[in-house]
Amino acid sequence: MEHIFKLHNDLDILHNRIINLDNRKYYQVILLVIANDTNDYYCEMIKNYWIPLINYVKKNHISIRIFLLFGKQPINIKIDLNDIIVKETGEGYIPQILQKTILALEHIYKTYEFKHLIRSNLSSFFRIDKLIQLSDNLANKDIFSGFRGYNPTHINGGGIWLSKDVLFYLLQNKTKLNYKIIDDVAISNLLFNKYYKNLINIRESFNDYSILNRYDCNIKKKYDFYHIRIKSINRFNDAKIMKLLFEYYYS
Predict the structure, then answer these.
(1) pTM value?
(2) CB neighbours of 136 closer than 8 A, spacing ≥ 6?
């Protein structure tokens, strides 16, 4: 009788796991954004662009889920707790960004179904329409791609594209990652030779800061990319640019 009871109990556990799998929410793209609230300009970027973008995606029922990833509970920015992931690694550069990235990726892998995941950062501006078009044209397997810039062997951390099978491989081999180096280099060192495909080596860096003073009707045509990196020596101006670009593209 004890064996029969155990068998029934095991079957119930398996059944509940299957139900949980079936109930996992599907998104075409999950956008995981490295964030922290330790600098005022980061908070401005979140207020000026990321929260409005999250609200835009929700309002228009777009199949994208955006998570801002923190290494400790944010206290300097007001944001919906459903839109953040907090992993208690502390905020810092090396090794904290890689640590909280892997912990968040494990949570996402177990919790959601998705076609593609993009690991990004606060100073990245995305054109949601073009992002979806790009995802539409990519396979749902064997995707590890993104902008390489001047380094031929690693993908820049502002836009690392992963399909779910490649994410599984990354998580299965997380102990092989080098936590003493930059996070995007560490991830590329593990995945590049096995999975990299030159599918998404496109991105534009923003350099028209004159729009801080006047409207420029050519901006939309000039920056006709899914991903615009906004990073200058004046990060507060970058935060202002993100707000202006949101108005250009989403108003």
Answers:
(1) 0.90
(2) none
Other CB atoms closer than 10 Å to residue 117's CB: what's the count? 23
Q: What is the secondary structure of 144-188 as a DSSP string?
A: EE---TT-TTS--TT-EEEEHHHHHHHHHTGGGS-TTS-HHHHHH
Tell which residue, 45, 231, 34, 250, has the closest CA to residue 130. 250
Q: What is the pLDDT of residues 132-157, one digit of tens each?
A: 999 999 999 999 999 997 888 999 99
Fold of 25-250: Spore Coat Polysaccharide Biosynthesis Protein SpsA; Chain A (3.90.550)
- Domain range summary for the chain, segments of one domain joined by +: 25-250
Tokens coding 43: 């908070």
Q: For residue 30, give the nearest of 77, 68, 56, 79 by alpha carbon.
A: 68
Q: Which residues, 6+ apart, have CB-to-CB distance to 210 below 8 Å?
A: 216
pLDDT single digits (tens) 83-134: 999 999 999 999 999 999 999 999 999 999 999 999 999 999 999 999 999 9
Count of positions (residues) in the chain: 251
The CA distances from residue 69 to 177, 196, 242, in Å, are 20, 25, 19
User: What distance in Å separates the CA atoms of residue 39 and residue 56, rounded to the nearest whole number?
Assistant: 25
* Alpha carbon distance 232, 227 (integer Å): 16
